[in-house]
Amino acid sequence: MATVGVVLLLLVLTRFLAAADVFCDNLKTVLVTLPNNTSSSPVRFATAAFGQAPDIVYAFALCRGDIVGVVFNESYCRECVRNMTDKVLNAAPREQCYKDTYHDYGDRCILVYSRDDIIAPPSGENGGDDTPAERWNDKNVTGDVDDVRLITSLTRELLVQTVEKAASAAPRRFATGIMDSGTTFPMVRSLAQCRPDASTVDCLACLRRLLGVVNATMSLRMGAQINAIRCYFRYEAYRFYGGEATLRLTPPPAPSLAPTPAKRRSMSKLWAIPIVILLLAAAAFLCFIFCSRRITRKRRGKAGEEQLVWQGKNSEFSMFEFEQVLVATNNFSEENKLGQCGFGTVYKGQLPEGSEIALKRLAPHSGQGFTEFKNEVQLIAKLKHKNLLLGS
Ligand SMILES: *[C@@H]1O[C@H](CO)[C@@H](O)[C@H](O)[C@H]1NC(C)=O
Ligand SMILES: *[C@@H]1O[C@H](CO)[C@@H](O)[C@H](O)[C@H]1NC(C)=O
Ligand SMILES: *[C@@H]1O[C@H](CO)[C@@H](O)[C@H](O)[C@H]1NC(C)=O
Ligand SMILES: *[C@@H]1O[C@H](CO)[C@@H](O)[C@H](O)[C@H]1NC(C)=O
Ligand SMILES: *[C@@H]1O[C@H](CO)[C@@H](O)[C@H](O)[C@H]1NC(C)=O
Ligand SMILES: *[C@@H]1O[C@H](CO)[C@@H](O)[C@H](O)[C@H]1NC(C)=O
């Protein structure tokens, strides 16, 4: 019984060790290619995959985007990556090949390997869903309250712009920035980079997800490097990258306003105020004209209005004799009838000079309708439209 147990245990153990060895062998095969492949690539990026599930290994290495200069050159990139692969390969056996996803997010290069397909484009909409690795400077931004507020908000703006610039910078997806707050605080420098195989959309989504890590509390810190598998950004109050910054941010001319991005946005809408005032003035003017005309008409009319309308002395209206209407509507013929509405019938007609008219005739037996008809005519008279004619 005991022997069986030991044999079983040995079987399980050797199977486990064998599996672990296959993965480790695959990993070694992959890691050996990365230093040269990464440094010889124009974008300083290389991927590799080897083996079969469940022991398949996916890996990539990436050198920082500014490693193209005289000092940080191709061989520097190779050495940087080789140092990282050596760290894995030379680790004590117990620590070697022990994780499903391993990452080494260095200053100048990064190395990631996994059983998961980290080479494929991200599945979600956030440019990946791995937990960000955060490295913060312990020190806070110093200075008086207004300066600190200005510096942190400008740093935020700097990061937002750097991230956007990096995402659109094909094929390397890399950007650097510098911000001068105009205070005694040193210039803040920023860097953002995605894997060069990322699309603009995925790169932006990935970096924006990382920006979310910089909350109100953490934005006081003097620097940080935040990494995910497919992207990272970094900012510091000292020079940490080579070459010229690709973007530069300076505070707006009046520092006493301490303009946050939101304030600047609302100020840019100031031009809208004169337009609104103009529109209000125009409306008031039109209203004044309209009302005063109504008032004078009322004062003038009041008692005599009804007569004026009916007697055709209102010069703004054309008056027609009943005979003219009979001719126009072909004696109110059935075929000229357009419809029935309220207390009258509407007819189509044509005046001798050719214009088409619509004409409403009060129903002959509508006693109560006469008042309403009169009201309607008076209303129409007040409307004063050139296409309205009056008649009885
Ligand atoms: C990598 O490149 C260097 C320099 O070109 C060369 O000496 C070395 O043999 C290469 N290594 C591999 C694994 O190809
Ligand atoms: C990467 O290295 C391997 C092995 O040295 C080689 O077969 C392959 O072509 C290289 N890939 C690139 C993109 O250079
Ligand atoms: C890269 O830089 C190193 C020093 O950092 C130098 O020794 C080497 O010659 C340079 N290589 C090339 C190809 O420029
Ligand atoms: C690689 O590691 C060696 C030894 O630790 C170190 O001297 C060298 O600066 C490292 N190179 C890079 C590029 O990190
Ligand atoms: C930085 O600021 C935070 C929030 O005000 C505070 O909790 C923390 O102690 C500060 N850290 C240092 C090193 O001053
Ligand atoms: C800000 O982020 C830090 C680190 O990620 C976290 O510990 C802290 O709880 C966050 N604070 C707020 C107010 O969300």
TrEMBL record:
Keywords: ATP-binding, Kinase, Membrane, Nucleotide-binding, Repeat, Serine/threonine-protein kinase, Signal, Transferase, Transmembrane, Transmembrane helix
Residue ranges crossing the lipid bilayer per the database entry: 270-291
Residue intervals of the Gnk2-homologous domain: 5-118, 133-240
Compartment(s) where it occurs, according to its Swiss-Prot or TrEMBL record: Membrane
Membrane disposition: Single-pass membrane protein
InterPro entries for this protein: GNK2, GNK2_sf, Kinase-like_dom_sf, Prot_kinase_dom, Ser-Thr/Tyr_kinase_cat_dom
Main location (coarse class): membrane
Protein kinase domain location: 332-392
One MF term in the entry's GO annotations: protein serine/threonine kinase activity
Source domain of life: Eukaryota
A GO CC annotation given for this chain: plasma membrane
Signal sequence annotation: 1-19
Alphabetical list of Pfam families matching this protein: PK_Tyr_Ser-Thr, Stress-antifung
PANTHER family cross-referenced by the UniProt entry: PROTEIN KINASE DOMAIN-CONTAINING PROTEIN (PTHR27002:SF345), RECEPTOR-LIKE SERINE/THREONINE-PROTEIN KINASE SD1-8 (PTHR27002)
Official protein name in the record: Cysteine-rich receptor-like protein kinase 10
